[in-house]
User: What shape does this take?
Amino acid sequence: QNSFSSDETPVRWVRINTLLISENEFFTKHKFFAGLKRVDTIESLEQGSLYKDTFVPHLYGIHPKEKITSTEAYRKGHVIIQDRASCFPAHILNSDKEHKHKFVVDACSAPGNKTTHIASLIDQNSSNSCVFAFERDNKRVETLNKMSKIACPHKFGALIKVTHADFTSVDPSDYESVTGLIVDPSCSGSGIFGRAVEDEQTKEEVDSERLRRLSSFQYKIMKHALSFPSAKRVVYSTCSIHMEENEEVVSDLLNDETIKSLGWELAKRDQVVPSWPRRGISDAFRGISADEDERKALAEGCIRFVPREDMGIGFFAACFIRS
Ligand code: SAM
Assistant: This one.
């Protein structure tokens, strides 16, 4: 999800891992990063320069030809390569002004980019606050453990509690303290470029049967997340560009009687990175309202990234809230 080759994107995104180091210390300690020239626009990035993102805290854009992986900062886990779009879910979950989460769930965690990001943002004043990270796949759960250990070795197993399990089989009543969830399920990956998946897709469009299967799985896993008893915010995301996996899943969830009865609504634009300009597709909300303005308002609550054009992968994010 996070690797580009230099001819495919003008920028590579790196997140300072504040679990291990503050931003100030980072630039004092790591001369390579401190030595880069600051530029004000992504477009003016070139080798030897650094751009500070205006949407996600502690995130920087760097020229893809820079050899970040050979820096001490990378080896020590002080910096994590993570696409900007992929940083939005944890940032959205954390932007609830009324509530600072202490206990959160990451439903689909491996390799762990969003897990380690949200772990750095939860309220750690409470001694036992943590991220419950679920992963179903045997191999990927190992990668998740490895990444969690690199990102927070001092609190390994405490701040991030990894469970190798199918999230839909987890009993929500065992997690009464959880107030926030991130659900980033398997998807078609149609927003990802620079990997074989994109070439396959241009040759052979993702077929509608596959999209149907994926979206019904995405719906199911989201519905499970929305049944957590104390949950106040659930962020849904995919790296797909298809409306079927994105706005339509959201629309179907909003139409679900159980979900309505639990008090869930779609967060409005002002609660979901309002300054990000590219929002959802309103047509997908036809099943919810005949009123065009209402459909537009729902779409405004969703976030989209167009691959390359928005300086990274194609992505979608939306947030369910209740008081
Ligand atoms: N959130 C991850 C990150 O930012 O690094 C990427 C997640 S990836 C898109 C989806 C992951 O969900 C895969 O590792 C997949 O094995 C896992 N997964 C799929 N279905 C699951 C389920 N029912 N329960 C737990 N994990 C699941």
